[in-house]
Design a protein that fits this description.
Blueprint: H1 4-22, H2 26-42, H3 63-75, H4 79-123, H5 128-139, H6 146-154, H7 159-166, H8 174-188, H9 192-240, H10 245-251, H11 253-281
Helix pairs in contact: 2-5, 3-4, 4-5, 4-9, 5-6, 6-7, 7-8, 8-9, 9-11, 10-11
Length: about 280
Amino acid sequence: MVTGRPVHAAALYAGLAARLGAGRGRGPRRGRLLFEAGAARVGPPPAGWWPGRSASRLRPEWLCLAASLVPALLGESLLPLLAGVAAVPLVGGWLRARARARERDRRADAVIELCAAVAAELRAGSQPAQALRFAARATGALGGEEPAVLAAARFGGDVPEALRCAARAEGADGLAGLGACWQVAVDGGAGLAAGLDRLEAALRERREQRERLRAQLSGAWATVVLLALLPVAGLAMGAALGADPLGVLLHTPAGLACLAVGGALEAAGLWWAGRIVRAGEEP
């Protein structure tokens, strides 16, 4: 009995080694996907979040009030403070639009990872429903439609229609291509993995094209920001030369008229320049 224990232990270790060797290809891939999915779901803190404070108490757009206090105190006028109050909703809308754009890009990247993960699982021998279930939970690309899509895949429902419904979210339009590949594979018997490879390549190419376009337009956006800061630089130069530009603009009729006309022209110029640059960003 004593001599049989090493034999049993060696057989147990050999079985464990064989099992680990057989799952060596899928284990690291699943671990990497789950790790990336956890990092993507946690992500950076939302806009306006500060440690130890509620997001509703302190948001970046409220810094406009703090910035407007400086010219209000220097010029001894409430007009800069009123301008800061008016700028709060505008800056807040701009920040929310940027947050939506980041979320749209994140979801588009998740759809690409979903296609790659489903194709990899299919080649590893998984069934389509099982591959979609694992990839969806690992990447989080389906968003709020994940339960409906997974239920359709598990119980024989209309998976392409469920994917098309999930594709209505911003940045998730690649899911419509996944639904088309699924339908072609089910109806025509074509290889789903090969179709997903082509879909993934097309989505990656579109993402790279968008990134190249943004890189080319970064110079135009820098010009827009420079034009927006020129009036502030002019006021600072006038104050450095010993003049009182804030006093003239805020306490004289001619200065108030110039301030109104200049502010209107500045707003119109920024809107027009931003419109031109945003038109160049469109696909």
